[in-house]
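Annex B. Sample input.
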Amino acid sequence: MPLENKSRSLAKQLEAQRVVDAARGVIAAKGIAGMSLRSVAEAAATSVGSISYRIGDRAALIAAVLDREIELAAATRMEWRDRIGECDPVASGILPDLICEWLDQGAGSRRTSAIVMCELALTAGREPQSLPSITALFEEAEGLWRDLLSCSAHGERLARLIARYCLDEQVFSILLVDETDYRLLRHSTVRGMLRNGSAPVEPTASQWHMALVERLAIPAAAAFDAASPIPRGSKGVIAETIADIVVEQGVGALSHRTVAQASGVPTSSVAHHFPTHRDVLFAGVEAVYRRLRSHIHGTGARLGNGDIIRLTHECALSALTDPAFRPFAIDMRRRRAENVHALYAQWLGIPEHSDRARVQAMVMASIGNGLRILAEQTEWPDMRDLLATFT
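Annex B, continued. Sample output.
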């Protein structure tokens, strides 16, 4: 190829990458739902026609964003492999530091990629077969931990566990990076995840973990009202409709107008029962949680519930731009394992309240695994079988 043609081809590639990176920035700021060709064109200082010509329609642009994230994840994997060298993170005792630093990078230098990865995972889960390459992105993230633990005994098992846990924890690390009690709770959870299950646990460790859970009830207080009864009559019907919207479209779709249209009632009727946006959100979240509790009681070990997984991550992502969602996201993070801790302790073979940090970590790894299942459209495992791959 003549030099002039090579230069022209390179220029086109760089321009396409510039547009894709602009799209990544828009997604990080507004979510995939808020990304349009026009918003990307404005961010990239180009035209919609130019994007359509170089990349294609909106679906093609999202696929290009995924390809870019896979490329960046591979580069980050190599960077971390070089950083660790031949050190065994388990034998040297630095593994908890690496996990927490990785999550902190996701709130800092990797923030855009961390948000975009979560958005892509949720999109793949809601739109089956829309992003077939999503598995490659998950594998790069997990491959990083396999590389770092290649010298460690049980490195494959640990890599799987850590990658799944981080997939759930990362969005909260972004949202709550400045919340001291959250960061302490996260450190406690990481240590619990890495503890040997057969080793005795100092009781004060579990007490400390639960004290942090309780302390986070303060910034989460606006998300719940213990005195609020389960809505009945027409209010209850509207609340269930709100839950349906949350499940089918995500929390970002909630408004008095969309609820009214879905319920077949005037907007004024929705506003009468749920005056504020917070009231609408609260009604939907509580209805979805009631469904979860019913699901738990009815299915035993098969606890896969995509609605709850999507809800918690969508709330955390929405809270990045809308403070109204923040208390809900904090409450969902602090209550990880609340509904299932007794079952998980039984499956882990430990006394029910002996190590709440370890139980919470295993629940979070299960939720991260659920995100992958939803995105890849694979079968939900029996939770006891899944735990066997983590321990």
